[in-house]
Amino acid sequence: MSTHQHSFNERFEFAGKAKTFSLVGIVIGIVGVLAGFFGGEKGIQNTFSNLLLSSYYFVGVCVAGVFFLAYQYMAQAGWSVSFLRIPQAFARALGVAVVILLIVVGAGLLVKHPEMHEGHKVMAPYLYAHWATPGLSDPKSEIYDTIIAGKSAFLNVPFFFGTLIVLLGLYTWFGSLLVKYSNNEDALGGMLNYNKSFKISAIFLTIFGFTFPIYAFGAVMSLEAHWFSTMFGWYNLAAVHVSGLAVIALTLIILKENGYFSWVNESHFHDLGKLIFGFSIFWTYVWFAQFFLTWYANIPEESVYFYKRWEPEYKWWFWLNIILNFLAPLLLLMKNDSKRSMNRMKIAAIIIIIGHWLDYYLMIMPGTIEKEHMFDLVEFLQDMAIFAGFAGLFTFVMLNALSKFESLIPKKHPFLEESLHHHIQ
Question: Phi and psi of 124, rounded to 5°?
Fold first, then answer.
C-alpha cells in the first residue's frame, strides 16, 4: 500500500516530445487548411468538409469522456477510479472543441459560392447546401423544394445554430461540473461532492440520451437533408462512444509506458477492453440494421444515401470501414488475454481511432463534395494533414488540461481502494 500512497501526489508534466509532436501536428494541420483555401473551389469545398469532419470527431471524443464519467458515477463503479483523470481531461478540452466546431459550422453556412442547382445558378453555402441554399423553402423560388420546405421549421439557420449552441453548451457545462466536484472532493474529502457527481450524472445522462441524436441529426445527417434515418443518432452515439474509449485506452497506455499511472494493472485494461469490444459490436449492429432495412425496403429516397457510398469513388472505403471497426476489434480483442495485453490494446485502439475517422468520412464527404476519381493524391494529403492538425490540437489541449490536476488520481474518491486492488482472474 505504501507505493500507492507515494504515487498519490504524482502530477503529469506536459513537456518534451509530447508537446513537440502535438505542436508539429497543429502546424501540419494549418498548412493543410491554408493549402486548401488557396486551392480553388474544389480545394475550398474539401477543406470545409474536412474541417467539419475533424471538429465533429474532436467534439465526439471529448463528449465521450463526459459520458464515460457520468455512467461510471451512475453505476457506482470502482474499477475505473484509477484513471478517471484522463476522461476528466477530455471534459476540460470539450469547451475548445465546441468553439472550433461552431466556428466551422458558422463559416460553412455564411461563406457562399456559385453553383448550379437543377439548371439554376444559386449562391450555395459550403456546408449544409442541401437545405441552407436561399430559395429552397420559398414557394416563389425557381428552386423551391417541397421536402426541404416541410423541414424548414428546424432546418433553418437560427434554429439549427441555436440548437447546436444550447446542446453543446450543456454538455460542456455538465463536464465542467464533474471535474469541479472531483477536485473539490480531493480538497475536502467526505461524500458531499461524490453525491453531487452522482446526481449531476443522472441529469446529464437523461438529457444526453434524448438530445445527442438531435445533435447528430443536425450536425451530420442534415448534410443530405432529403434523407433521414431514425437509427442515425444511435449509430453516431455508438461511434462517438467507442472512438472515445479507444482514445482513453491509447492515452492511458502511452502515459503508463512513460512512467505514469503505475497503479493501473492489466485488470483495468481488461475491463476497458471489454467496453471497447462490446461497443464495437454494438456499432456494427446499428450499422448493419440501418443498412439492411434500407436495402430491404428499397425506397428510392432512402436508398440514395447508400447508393452514393456504393459508387466506385467510395465503395472500397465502405467495406474498409467494416474491416477496421468490426473485424479488427473482433479478432484483436475477443480473447480475455488480448484485453490484458497493453500492446494488443494499443494496436486495437489505433485501428479503431483511424476506423472511426473513416466512418465519419463516409458520413460527411459523399454529401458535400463530388469526387471525380477513386483516389486523388492531393485531396488525400490534405485530408491527412487536417486530421494530423486536429490530432495535435486535441493532444495539446487534453494533455495541458491533464497537467493542471494536482494529482493523477482522485485521492479521496470513496471507491479508490476498490480500484487500486482491482484484480480479475
Answer: -105, 145
Own/partner pairs for 15-22, CB < 8 Å, 24+ apart?
18/395, 18/399, 19/396, 19/399, 21/392, 21/395, 22/392, 22/393, 22/395, 22/396, 22/399
Which tens digit of pLDDT belongs to each residue from 23-60? Answer: 999 999 999 999 999 988 889 999 999 999 999 999 99
Distance CA 152, CA 134 (A): 12
Q: Where are the beta strands (DSSP E) in 264-347?
A: none
Q: Which residues does residue 112 pair with via DSSP β-bridges, in sequence order? A: 125
Task: State which amino acid sits at residue 410.
Answer: P
* One-letter identity of residue 124: A
**What pLDDT digit, counting tens, does each position of 339-348 carry?**
999 999 999 9
Helix (H, G, I), strand (E, B) or coil at 187: helix
> What three-state secondary structure class fits 124?
strand
Helix (H, G, I), strand (E, B) or coil at 41: helix
d(CA 53, CA 48) in angstroms, rounded, equals 9
Q: Quick check: helix, strand or coil at residue 377?
A: helix
Of 413, 318, 412, 398, residue with least CA distance to 366: 318
Report the length, in residues, of the chain. 425
Q: What is the mean pLDDT of residues 404-424?
A: 90
pLDDT digits over 265-301, tens only? Answer: 999 999 999 999 999 999 999 999 999 988 888 888 7
Q: Which residues pair with 121 in a beta bridge?
A: 116
Query: Other CB atoms closer than 10 Å to residue 425's CB: what's the count?
Result: 4
Contact at 8 Å (CB) between 36 and 45? no
pLDDT at 119: 74
Query: Tell me: the pLDDT tens digits for 79-130?
Result: 999 999 999 999 999 999 999 999 999 999 999 988 877 777 888 999 999 9
Query: Percent helix, strand and coil across the chain, each rounded to 5?
Result: 75, 5, 20
The pLDDT of residue 215 is: 97
The 10 Å CB-count burial string (b at 16+, else e) for 93-105 is: bbbbbbebbbebb
Contact assessment for residue 386 and residue 74, using Cβ atoms and an 8 Å cutoff: no
Q: How far apart are CA 403 and CA 281, in angstroms?
A: 34
Q: Please give the distance of CA 387 from its chain centroid, rounded to a whole number.
A: 13
For 120, the 3-state DSSP assignment is strand
